[in-house]
Specification:
Layout (H helix, E strand, L loop, with lengths): L24 H5 L15 E7 L5 E7 L1 H4 L4 E6 H4 L33 E2 L5 E7 L2 H10 L1 E6 L6 H4 L15 E7 L2 H10 L2 E9 L11 E7 L4 E6 L4 H13 L6 E4 L15 H13 L3 E4 L2 H7 L6 E9 L5 E13 L6 H4 L2 H7 L8 E9 L13 H19 L3 H8 L8 E2 L5 E2 L4 H11 L5 H10 L3 E10 L8 E7 L5 E5 L9 H12 L6 E4 L17 H28 L6 E5 L5 E5 L5 E3 H10 L13 E5 L8 E11 L4 E12 L6 H20 L31 E4 L17 H18 L13 H13 L1
Parallel strand pairs: 1-12, 10-11, 14-15, 20-21, 27-28
Antiparallel strand pairs: 1-5, 2-4, 2-6, 3-5, 7-15, 8-13, 9-10, 9-12, 13-14, 16-17, 18-26, 19-20, 19-25, 22-23, 23-24, 26-27
Helix pairs in contact: 11-12, 12-20, 16-17, 17-18, 19-20
């Protein structure tokens, strides 16, 4: 249940529920942010990676002599140079098992390819020089002799018996043959169904396209034997442990990770990359810091991509239209190596999220995770959660058409009802709260569903097709893990929050400060946030899976309670009263104050902190400070949900699609900052529209990246997006102290089905029943042309 000790002080200007602008915005807008590439260290050198120009091939030799002759070049390194130093590799830590109970076939990825290259962009060497220009010249002088092998880029094709094999120990290129569910019961449900709907759905591959390319600086202190890596990340504590335990093979205390501002990640910067070991190795050998900053072309090749699944989806309905079972049979593309998260999206996250907010009693998911000669896949905003919702919503919409039912009525009859909570889903999740039909009804009203026929007629008068689509969603967030919540009262009168999540664009400083301000009554403007120094952390789950506020917020709430207990003891000494008589309250301005019950005698929390800091000869049982270092334990995942409604217009002669209206109603539980939550939803919706209509990674048969720049890869711009209607219909979460449900990835979960259902609705007059993402003008035009000639 939400913690009843959180005071009800919603009148506070900076309390929970207030739309407070982000504290970091003035800093970032004035160019005062400090990203990794802004960091320059004394004596630093520069590194440039040498990457494979081929998707698949055997390395016969790497000639570096010419590169070493380039003026300014100090070192050229291959995997042979790294070998013998005791380094490890990058691997997938997920404890996933095959259908037969055996563990997944893991891939230990070295920093540099040694025997074979497995995708275009696979790093094979790196050059370190006095300047970036010299390092580039040196990299161009490295010659890599590769015997080119046939390549395969699609997962289903890579699973074929005659496909090129990427690894000898991975037969059929299959690292995981995953199965979830009772196959016999599901088969029985389909056999008994009054109607079965089937769709073949492609979940298109995405380039992450973070605003800030990856960048890092490696340092090594010979005296202490300690490595320091300045790098954009999603959590310094987790990255420190991965680099220490898996890659460097040193005790964690020998590694420090520092992260400043981060210009976006969306999952891509969450884990280690080959470049990081290369930089630290060179820094150790050369005795100077080594800096590397990627360029956009190499980012397209080397940053982990997102999505990429080929799915056969099936839905069984009874005679009344109630769902009996849903079944997914999928191929999941892993790329050339196995990232830390790649197998999760098409396996566990499909299972958790295909249920959505419907009372479907049976789920079956079968996924073969396949290696291909492409850039490795990693988590991308939602990481399987938007996809699960998308599959079910497309199935449900198609089922309504096939059975002649109203799609809204079909949703209503299948919704989990409010009286069913807590609801035990066949995925293993236990939903704690929600009012799904009420959210749908409010969205229909806000979107003026009944007024659509008039808008459709107006569009037709202009020669345009118009369609509308619903995207119901329920997302299973990542469960909050152990998270640090440290509160430190500083000598300069500020209060520092230290926690292990990491803001890579979300704006954690403001909502975390709102939580602390409400819990302790410390001045909002005095609160600072520290997240990016692993030396200050004893726990930290990083940011991902829409859990940051649930994790760090809960840690702050619990730590604040400990501050109050320390404060009552300290105030009792200061006020010469019994601890039992000390109460904690807020004054007229909402500031925290310890008082003697029944009197007007008291001391403000900030004054108390100052007096403790300067106390002479304090009693032995009086706290030295109000500082608290606390670790919040684990909590269950939460279940943000909502309903998005989209309207599109299509120009039939060109296939151009425009999103013209967009409304969303969301249940994010207790909302700390409505302004920022709306912004998070807007960002997710924009990325969902991008995937639905524009973005697609394309490879040639030889594995060459055809969409390798912004001339070939389309991102949505502000002009491509409508105004987003955003409303809230919250039901507080019952499993974390704040009652929050998470919001960071939900925009994608609602937008993918809403946009694509609207598109299919617009094309339905031609008999089109399905179209895959991205619905580019060429693809839409072709669908119309083929339907006209059918």
């Amino acid at each position: 249940m939400p913690d009843s000790t959180m005071p009800d002080v919603t009148r506070l200007k900076f309390g929970v529920g207030q739309a407070v602008p982000r504290n970091e915005d003035p800093i970032l807008l004035q160019g005062r942010g400090r990203y990794t590439d802004d960091v320059s260290l004394p004596g630093q050198l520069y590194a440039v990676m040498v990457r494979s120009p081929y998707a698949h091939g055997v390395i016969r030799g790497i000639e570096t002599a010419a590169a070493l002759e380039v003026p300014g070049v100090l070192g050229v390194y291959t995997e042979a140079d790294l070998d013998g130093h005791g380094y490890g590799g990058m691997r997938c830590p997920l404890p996933l098992k095959n259908a037969d109970g055996t563990p997944l076939r893991n891939i230990l990825r070295p920093a540099l390819a040694a025997d074979k290259v497995r995708f275009v962009g696979d790093p094979v060497a790196f050059v370190v020089a006095e300047s970036k220009a010299a390092a580039k010249d040196g990299a161009e002088a490295v010659y890599v002799d590769i015997d080119v092998l046939p390549a395969v880029t699609e997962a289903a094709a890579a699973a074929a018996p005659d496909a090129p094999q990427l690894y000898d120990h991975v037969p059929g290129n299959c690292v995981l043959d995953f199965h979830y569910g009772d196959a016999a019961k599901v088969a029985g449900a389909f056999a008994a169904a009054a109607h079965v709907t089937k769709l073949a759905i492609r979940n298109n591959r995405i380039v992450v396209c973070a605003m800030e390319p990856r960048s890092a600086i490696g340092e090594y202190d010979a005296e202490s034997g300690r490595y320091t890596l300045h790098v954009g990340s999603q959590g310094v504590f987790g990255l420190k442990n991965q680099m220490a335990n898996d890659v460097l093979k040193v005790p964690p205390e020998k590694v420090r990770i520092l992260t400043g501002n981060v210009g976006g990640s969306f999952g891509m910067k969450a884990s280690a990359y080959p470049e990081y070991l290369c930089l630290l190795h060179a820094a150790k050998l050369l005795g100077r810091p080594v800096k590397w900053t990627d360029e956009r072309t190499d980012s397209f090749l080397s940053d982990q991509h997102g999505r990429d699944h080929e799915v056969d989806a099936e839905l069984a309905l009874d005679a009344e239209g109630r769902a009996l079972a849903v079944r997914l049979t999928s191929y999941a593309n892993m790329g050339g190596y196995l990232s830390t998260s790649a197998p999760l999206m098409g396996t566990g996250n499909f299972v958790k999220n295909i249920q959505s907010n419907y009372a479907t009693p049976l789920i079956e998911v079968t996924t073969r995770c396949i290696l291909t000669n492409t850039t490795p896949i990693g988590a991308y905003r939602g990481a399987g959660r938007p996809e699960g919702n998308y599959f079910f919503e497309r199935l449900l919409e198609q089922a309504a058409k096939e059975t002649g039912r109203d799609a809204i009525a079909l949703r209503r009859i299948n919704h989990i009802k409010p009286g069913a909570f807590p609801f035990s889903a066949p995925s293993g999740s236990v939903y704690d709260s929600g009012d799904f039909t009420a959210v749908l009804e409010r969205a229909l009203e806000a979107a003026d569903w009944e007024g659509f026929p008039a808008r459709k007629a107006e569009s037709r008068a202009r020669g345009l097709l118009r369609g509308r689509g619903i995207g119901n969603f329920l997302e299973c967030t990542a469960p909050p893990m152990k998270e640090q919540g440290e509160i430190r009262f500083e000598a300069d009168g500020t209060v520092t929050i230290i926690t292990g999540t990491l803001d890579y664009g979300q704006g954690h400083w403001t909502p975390f400060a709102q939580v602390l301000h409400q819990a302790l009554g410390v001045p909002f403007e005095s609160i600072r946030l520290v997240q990016g120094d692993s030396d200050l952390l004893i726990a930290g789950g990083g940011t991902g899976g829409s859990k940051s506020l649930m994790a760090s917020g809960a840690a702050i709430v619990e730590a604040a309670q400990l501050v109050v207990e320390k404060g009552r003891t300290a105030a009792a000494h200061m006020l010469e009263a019994a601890v039992a008589d000390i109460e904690f309250e807020r004054d007229a301005e909402g500031l925290g104050r310890f008082t003697i019950a029944g009197t007007d005698r008291g001391i403000g929390i900030m004054e108390l902190a100052e007096r403790l800091r300067t106390a002479n000869n304090p009693p032995p049982d009086m706290p030295e400070s109000l500082n608290v270092r606390h670790v919040f334990g684990e909590a269950p995942m939460a279940y943000p949900n909502g309903c998005h409604i989209c309207e599109v217009e299509i120009e039939p002669e060109t296939g151009h699609v425009e999103v013209v209206r967009y409304t969303s109603v969301n249940d994010f539980g207790v909302i700390v900052n409505p302004l920022m939550v709306a912004g998070q939803a807007h960002g997710g919706i924009a990325q969902g529209i991008g995937q639905a209509l524009m973005e697609r990674v394309a490879y040639s048969e030889e594995g060459q990246l055809l969409s390798g720049s912004y001339q070939d890869y389309c991102l949505p711009r502000a002009g491509d997006l409508p105004d987003f209607g955003f409303l809230s219909h919250p039901t507080p979460c019952r499993t974390n102290p704040l009652g929050a449900k998470g919001c960071g990835e939900a925009g994608c979960a609602g937008s993918l089905p809403a946009v694509m259902n609207a598109l299919v609705d617009a094309l339905s007059e031609f008999g089109v029943t399905h179209i895959d993402m991205p619905a580019t003008p060429e693809r839409v035009w072709r669908a119309i042309a083929e339907a006209r000639t059918a």
